[in-house]
TrEMBL record:
Protein name: UPF0340 protein FD50_GL000043
Superkingdom as given in the UniProt entry: Bacteria
Originating species: Liquorilactobacillus satsumensis DSM 16230 = JCM 12392
HAMAP family registered for this protein in UniProt: UPF0340
InterPro entries: Antibiotic_NAT-like, DUF436
Pfam families assigned: DUF436
Family: Belongs to the UPF0340 family.
């Protein structure tokens, strides 16, 4: 079955715009994307990577983020230790550790390959702290998003410790 790339583009754009409307990001902020093209197609994560879907998603996300001057980081799969593709300029400015890996379809994934194709100077980094993110396909991006804990959780946790 051929994926409906127009529908995928539409859903990604809609979801991203909804997220951005509540995230209040500023120019220069970092946005992390986790993406399983296998799960988008209804398959088990890592079992049916699709480069056409990855390219559609990356082009859509970049088209939304670039005018807002928000930087994109694309998380790879566990085969690359969840390393992230970012622009070299972003990595240097933030002091991120650049690592020497290059994504493949089943090691890094289709979205990472598409990011390498679309970024000016793509590099892989080991870890980031993004201000927001979108996880398409349960890829576990939480480790790369700024930690936020609500006051209610803090007081509940303090009560548990007393």
């Amino acid at each position: 079955m051929t994926p409906d790339l127009v529908e995928i583009e539409k859903r990604v754009r809609t979801g991203l715009n909804e997220l951005l409307a509540t995230a209040h990001l500023e120019p220069g902020d970092l946005f992390v994307l986790g993406c399983s093209t296998s799960e988008i197609q209804g398959n088990k994560i890592g079992q049916n990577s699709n480069l056409a879907i990855g390219r559609t998603i990356i082009k859509t996300v970049l088209a939304v983020l670039h005018p807002l001057q928000i930087n994109l980081a694309v998380q790879g799969c566990e085969h690359l230790n969840r390393a992230l593709v970012v622009e070299k300029e972003v990595a240097k400015r933030a002091g991120f550790e650049i690592v020497t890996v290059f994504p493949a379809l089943h090691a890094g994934g289709a979205a990472q390959i598409a990011a390498f194709e679309n970024f000016k100077e793509p590099v892989e980094v080991e870890h980031i702290i993004a201000q927001a993110g979108m996880d398409i396909g349960d890829t576990a991006i939480g480790m790369h998003v700024k930690f936020v804990q609500s006051r209610e959780n803090l007081s509940a946790n303090s009560k548990l410790r007393t």
